[in-house]
Response regulator receiver protein (Paraburkholderia phymatum), 469 residues
Amino acid sequence: MFDAALLRKSFAPTVRQTTSSSSGMSHRSVGVVPCSLVYIEADSAGSPNCTSVDPYCYVEQAITLNRSLKAVGLPALTVATNVAGQVMHYLEKVDADARPHVVQLSPSALTLPKITRFYSAHFKLDMMEQLGATLHEGELLMVLDTDMLALRPVDEELLLRCQTIGVGAFDISDQEFSAYGDARVIGDLETVAGARLQNPRWFGGEILLASAGFIAALVPRAHACFERYTHAIHELNHNGDEAFISAALNLLADEGVPIIDLGAHRVVGRHWSGNTHRDLRWFKGCSLLHLPGCKRLLERQARRQGFSAAHVWRSVVVRHEINRTVWPLRRWVRAQVRHRMRRGAAQPAARVDVLVLDPDAGRLSQLVSRLTSHGVYVMSALSTEEARNEARRLNPRVIVSSSPLGAVDARDLLDTVDARHRPVMIALSTDDARLDWAHWDTWFPGSADPSDVVQAVKQALGSRQPHAS
């Protein structure tokens, strides 16, 4: 039944946003620098969620976001772009109060095909790196997507906690796991991370609160994850910044860095019109709304004479009520399409070059480091069972094992991969005694120079063309 209370204009601060902490933290203020990426490449693939053919539609979304941020008392938005001159010229027709700040991004070192879905979003990493370096002591960079709307102030005490820890991110694992299957999502995360993760989580790309120190730690890990991501991009379920940024955040979490979940505190909510994942009343209590299905609505607001968050919210409510009736049918159709695609899919391409089975948890670390330095994509496993699972999931081109334990029989690993794409099997013994390792293609004694093993792996990779997808 429709709830008329949802149409009321009130966006007064909620209890959680006005209650002061007994610790007195809320008496301090936190400097926040909201920023969004507007990366314009006319011949690139845009977001599948964007129906506009105008590349400047993201500028219009940024105008609406900027208006809403200022309406709730947050600083003006900074737009980072690769075409600052063109964006500033476009903004000349907008009232000065509605214009976001514009900064020019330095040329990017990131390379990927322009036909990649969410192509522009990948360069969010450049924005974080470059703007993060400009932050003053105690400031937080607030990375936002342009298709967002601010409804309420952000809880000051939560900002202080993010400032103290260094980061707040939006954990959407519940949505991703239920939509695509936890095994698939976790598998993709670990492929991009290049490691087995302790507690894999998927983080939404629409918001990140981060200090300069945290960004300095995140960026190099994100660049390494980006390299693995581009190598496996055609086999991943998701294309875009969320894949490699989430992987980098997981790596930091595994190193003991705590990450505040902004969704749990209702700093942000991702709302799809018609989706019943959460009640609309929950979204109305959020500080910021991400509206990926309402981009055109946000673009139209940029052209209005005045800004009203209540007007936008009413439009969101009405659209939701209309689309709610067709949402189940849409989900069913998509499920049928995915099922048919999986049934007719061919053997997936190799998602890593080399799988290293290292039961000694470090004996082959030098080998892994050398292979990685040569641009080889490596995944490590600590047990035969883990190696079997990874071989089945990642379809490696070469498998290297360091121990002649009886359990490590090549057949145990070969049984898990497609016989048409048998990997090269390389064994490195724990001593100099040659053992009968059936089905292994190359054997090295324990005293072998690691560079010889690296050379054998490179030769094996050179003799095997990547598997056809």
Remarks:
- The longest strand covers residues 31-38.
